[in-house]
User: Which sequence fits this backbone?
């Protein structure tokens, strides 16, 4: 299965509501374009839908792709948190470009940079900013959980944008592999674990995880994100490391306390980040009122 | 940290004196040992005399499924039948509407007496968390806060969690249970009233002083505390400082063995021949144990470390030491020792506790060459605690 990013012209031809459209970025089996509609920029998302004529592709797999996109849109349509990306003006539809099928829809275009890009520039946020990031993401995680007990499952520095809007400085996006505890599982192969391997919560590697995971898996990935943003380093994975070694560390190794790398952080806040990286979900603080108290503490 | 008197038969003026001297921060009443009228009278008196003290009532609903026990003796709890207490079957309690009705009646009763916080009822998990009892227990916990809020009393609600030591030994099941009770969608209770039961009072010490049981008890306190719950431990007695070290807010003990260890056997006692009254014992901070008053007298010249250097020490110099003096000394000592372990992080507190165990072990070794202690005064409790700390650190990922 191969995925080629369609040209701007081809996309524009299929989506006439946009006066201008230009490629923005590619990720997995999707491409994002900047589309301008009535002077408003939107993120137009083209999700590749494979064809059953391709090797290894069955009707069930094609259906799985469609269901994932539907779930993402369904969840986003119910979200009202400012810390989760909003849907745009283009409703979901399927289009054909050069004999390939795509599910396309739009989201608001978030001006700003991902935390991943900011880390690459060597920026080190202070505690106030880290706490704001934690608070914003907690509200997002809590909102998702209220919507059919949904879990993002892929919170990472690449999926959070820092914007210039003081009302919503950090915004979470890409719910492509979101999971809902109350809905029928989408993934056909129960042993397949979708997500970024090095950021998966330990319980995700349990083959029965679909019966037991909850929003505390998102607290784990939030812990990883805060750790990376604060220190520029993943708490467990080394750059270029074999993924199996990383998985083994996720399951067995205790990360070096964030206090070792950021001694300037307050004891309670650093502790909270360390606790969110615990292997067992019940050891990760999850009482939002209690956490808010820690995050509200002045250094 | 709050030290509670675990109330029971033979209170007299013990609790009032403990409160006057500030050795205890509150009291937990047990309906088995006090009639509804007397309860109201005592609570009213203490509510008016000790404004800052916590007055709690353990509804002892965990007895509700024991009706078929031929030895059943629920004492004055019988007088509460028709108010909130009733005998129940698992089948009836599997229906959530029945659970809600029981919680409603219990909280209504507790609001009719001057308690300062509510302890909501629960059943007893006798063998395994992964059981119908475990599921029913979760339902009692899940509904406590919502029902309490309907009373608009602004009183905190502590959900009872009554577990057998046997159930606590299965770490995997305990962890799964903890995972479930720390993630309710409905508003969670403000805290938990935790009871760990031995099968029988005669073997309670041996059963509770087991590394797996202690580690499980510690994990319950630690996990619930880090998830923002206040945990009050009933009958925690000598383990109190260890539980405080990992996050417990409340600890308790009483003036006889029934009030130092929790066992449902209290409600269905085997008939025994009448024995003599237990000898008065002094709680030694450095030994983390009680020794007989005559042992204290024999040791204190050569091993001054066995004394605590607290105000109640001098009471043991009197010839007429009684149960009131004994419990006042016990409360003061447990209060003081426990506070030592609230100052640092959990890791630091446990290191400090570990150091205390090592010192106690050394002191026992020295004493053994000089004076033969009574079996109950010996240091058999230290090794399980040491192993429990190791196990707890492992399962709590510390």
Assistant:
């Amino acid at each position: 299965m191969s995925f080629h990013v369609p040209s701007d012209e081809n996309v524009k031809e299929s989506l006439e509501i946009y006066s201008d459209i230009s490629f923005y970025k590619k990720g997995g089996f999707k491409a994002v374009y900047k589309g301008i509609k009535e002077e408003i920029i939107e993120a137009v998302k083209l999700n590749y839908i494979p064809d059953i004529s391709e090797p290894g592709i069955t009707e069930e797999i094609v259906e799985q792709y469609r269901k994932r996109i539907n779930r993402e849109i369904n969840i986003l349509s119910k979200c009202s948190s400012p810390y989760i990306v909003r849907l745009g003006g283009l409703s979901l539809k399927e289009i054909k470009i050069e004999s390939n099928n795509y599910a396309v829809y739009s989201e608001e275009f978030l001006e700003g940079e991902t935390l991943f890009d900011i880390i690459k520039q060597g920026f080190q946020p202070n505690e106030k900013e880290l706490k704001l990031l934690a608070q914003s993401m907690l509200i997002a995680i809590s909102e998702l959980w209220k919507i059919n007990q949904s879990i993002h499952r892929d919170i990472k520095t690449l999926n959070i944008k820092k914007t210039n809007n003081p009302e919503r400085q950090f915004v979470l996006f890409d719910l492509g592999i979101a999971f809902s505890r109350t809905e029928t599982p989408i993934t056909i192969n129960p042993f397949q674990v979708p997500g970024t391997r090095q950021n998966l919560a330990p319980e995700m590697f349990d083959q029965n995880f679909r019966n037991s995971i909850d929003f505390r898996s998102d607290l784990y990935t939030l812990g990883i994100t805060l750790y990376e943003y604060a220190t520029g380093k993943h708490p467990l994975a080394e750059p270029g490391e074999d993924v199996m070694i990383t998985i083994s560390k996720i399951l067995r190794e205790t990360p070096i306390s964030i206090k070792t790398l950021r001694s300037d952080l307050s004891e309670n806040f650093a502790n909270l980040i360390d606790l969110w990286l615990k292997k067992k979900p019940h050891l990760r603080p999850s009482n939002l009122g209690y956490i808010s108290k820690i995050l509200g503490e002045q250094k | 940290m709050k030290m509670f008197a675990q109330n029971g038969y033979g209170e007299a003026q013990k609790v009032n004196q403990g409160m006057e001297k500030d050795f205890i921060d509150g009291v937990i009443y047990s309906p088995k040992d006090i009639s509804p009228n007397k309860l109201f009278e005592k609570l009213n008196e203490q509510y008016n005399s000790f404004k800052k003290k916590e007055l709690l009532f353990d509804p002892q609903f965990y007895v509700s499924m024991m009706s078929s026990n031929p030895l059943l003796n629920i004492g004055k709890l019988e007088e509460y039948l028709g108010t909130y207490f009733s005998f129940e079957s698992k089948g009836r309690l599997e229906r959530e509407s029945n659970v809600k009705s029981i919680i409603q009646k219990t909280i209504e009763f507790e609001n009719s007496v001057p308690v300062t916080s509510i302890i909501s009822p629960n059943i007893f998990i006798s063998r395994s968390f992964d059981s119908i009892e475990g599921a029913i227990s979760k339902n009692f916990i899940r509904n406590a806060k919502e029902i309490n809020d309907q009373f608009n009393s602004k009183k905190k609600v502590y959900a009872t969690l009554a577990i057998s030591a046997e159930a606590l030994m299965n770490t995997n099941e305990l962890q799964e249970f903890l995972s479930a009770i720390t993630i309710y969608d409905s508003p969670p209770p403000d805290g938990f009233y935790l009871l760990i039961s031995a099968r029988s009072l005669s073997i309670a010490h041996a059963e509770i002083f087991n590394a797996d049981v202690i580690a499980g008890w510690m994990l319950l306190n630690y996990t619930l505390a880090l998830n923002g719950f206040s945990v009050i431990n009933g009958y925690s007695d000598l383990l109190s400082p260890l539980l405080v070290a990992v996050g417990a807010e409340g600890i308790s003990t009483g003036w006889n063995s029934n009030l130092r260890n929790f066992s449902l056997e209290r409600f269905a006692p085997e008939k025994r021949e009448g024995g003599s009254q237990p000898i008065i014992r002094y709680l030694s901070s450095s030994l983390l144990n009680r020794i007989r008053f005559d042992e204290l007298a024999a040791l204190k010249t050569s091993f001054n470390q066995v004394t605590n250097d607290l105000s109640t020490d001098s009471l043991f110099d009197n010839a007429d030491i009684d149960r009131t003096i004994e419990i006042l000394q016990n409360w003061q000592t447990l209060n003081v020792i426990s506070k030592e372990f609230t100052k640092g992080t959990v890791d630091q507190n446990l290191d400090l506790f570990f150091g205390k165990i090592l010192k106690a072990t050394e002191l026992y070794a020295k004493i053994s060459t000089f004076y033969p202690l009574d079996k109950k005064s010996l240091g058999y409790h230290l090794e399980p605690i040491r192993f429990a700390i190791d196990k707890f650190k492992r399962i709590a990922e510390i």
Summary: The interface with chain A takes residues 175, 178-179, 182-183, 185, 188, 223, 226-229, 345, 396-397 of chain B (CB under 8 Å). The first strand of chain B starts at residue 2 and ends at 6.
